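Let's practice the habit of predicting before peeking. Look at the sequence and jot down your guess about where helices and strands might fall. Then scroll down.
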Amino acid sequence: MKKQALFSSNGFWIAIAVIGFICLPSTALYYGLAEATSEEVLEAMGWATPNVSWLWFGALLLVPLASRFSNQTAYRQGLTEFLLICAIFAFIFISATIAKISLGYSIFVLVIALIAMATNALAKMKIMQGDKFIIASLISIVLMIFFFIVYPTFAIFISMFYDGSEFVPTQFLTIIKQPYIVRIIFNSLSVAATIGVLATLFGLIFALYTTRIAKRTAFIGKIFSILPIVTPPFVVGLGVTLMLGRSGYVTQFLVEYLGFNNNWLYGFTGIVIAHTLALTPMSFMILEGALKSVHPSIEEASYTLRANRYQTFFNIIFPLLKPALGNSFLVVAIQSLADFSTPLVLGGSFDVISSQIYFFIAGSQLDYASASTLGSLLLIFSLSIFVIQYLWIGNRSYVTVSGKSYCGDVQDLPHLMKYAVMLILGVWVLFNVVLYGSIFYGSFTANWGVDYTLTLKHYQTLFGQGFNDGAWPSLIQTVLFSAAAAPITALFGLLIAYITVRRDFKGKKTLEFLTLLCFAVPGTVAGVSYILAFNNAPIYLTGTGLIIILSMVMRNMPVGMRAAIAGLGQLDKSLDEASLSLKGSSFKTIVFIVLPLLKPALLSALVTSFVRSMTTVSAIVFLVTADTRVATSYILNRVEDGEYGVAIAYGSILIVVMMAIILFFDWIVGETRISRSKAKKMN
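Done guessing? Here is the structure:
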């Protein structure tokens, strides 16, 4: 009780903020705390000279004073404190923006103190029934979304109207009216729609195999469906080029015997093939988790009512998969819209929005206005896809798991469907064996298509120069960044899902819109917006490892969030209510009730987040520097320099490392199958 009373005291959090003000710099150190000189650190301290930071920290004293000299009810006191804290927060941000002050470490401590004080104020008002864990989580989520989604999005929209420092309100209309922009827009939408449908279809097929058909051979479907996800998309594109490109052995056969043109791959066809291979595993992971959560009693009830297997699948199982199917299409379509690297390798003259944005930023002529305009269009398209998906699913219920125990097992698929799934999987496995065989074999050849002499020179270039040169620095840093980002992604994804699905409160629709915005921002747009938002005051993060981690978290947030939402949509709310009625806190309910039941979906989300962070390129390629090198940007630089052998060799190493991590993680944690209860094993 004393501990709770201490944390509920505003004086305690004011003391924490004061300690941070004394010990940590209030303005940013551009070379970091470790590399800054003592003079630079002293100059950055807020107490060293009179400045606005004195007002920032001093304003905290207004909160307890307002309560102390007020005779209002607890609700009115809490409301007064909360509004005052919001005003302080706004004052800090606005004054730092106007004065162009880059915020330092002590401001982070100040923000934590403000969040804690705001939590106490809202608890006094009995918001969320006074549940401080939920309140603090909600405040943290809103702040994170505002600063790392909404704020950068505003930055990219504002940049459309500026030509350098000159305000030109009609500039974006001039850019959009150009004929090639209209063609690029049509190209992007056609590719995204095609890949969204194909990847979701293949993902469903593989999920059906691993959950409803396979027994001892389930690992085959998993390995060959997960394999592309551990590979950067453009490395898959390079593998497709080795097979089907101008010098590919399949193309040579097609040209010689079937009269194909040796340029048939480049353009729409090549992008669709490569993206389908690369993005189907993401669809598979979403749909597999949903299929595992479908309770077998639903199917048995259908059979007892004399429905056949086809009727059961299309009228019972398939409708229950609507949320997961919609989520799959949304994630895949946005990933396709955001990826510029595959069109860079296989697009030829077929330009898309993302690749054009890359050329505007990384090309010979820097054009932030055009990049911002195309980025805004990309964001609008992503939001439109989300709205269509939301309207399709609607507000229907998809609950299949309740608090009642049941000892059942899943039923077989219809025979014809079962054989079709196995045939398609067999073709997929064969194609992937050839594709990845080409990638690994190509990494050992001197020059693919010209000189097939086996050599180790590409690997020597990468890993034979010590840990400070070659590929080692980028590989080590990528693992560290991804390991830091994945748990944060899973945590915030679960909290967002739990609060939006399980809680009713004022402003819920606004939070849902903000999470929608978080979900719909493509990586390319995020990368450009982060450059515009965090390259100067008040939040200067460019060139730091933190901006890479934040980019990974916000880029992969949809994975954790949508997986948790899909799982929570099938868990009866009475399970939570039973825990709360037994005096269990929200924190204990999430840890001991929700997490175990969502284990398959969240495990997939955690692994996917880590792997996607390791292989992401769309956003972070704009954010990396010489001090924050990552694997994908290193490989992409090799591709741009024409060093395809080195790029393929690094891609091969990345594939092996990622597969080893996934298989090890799967072996350690194991799987949770709702369809098989412990009671059945005991009988």
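How did you do? Strands lie at 162-163, 166-167, 445-447, 451-454.
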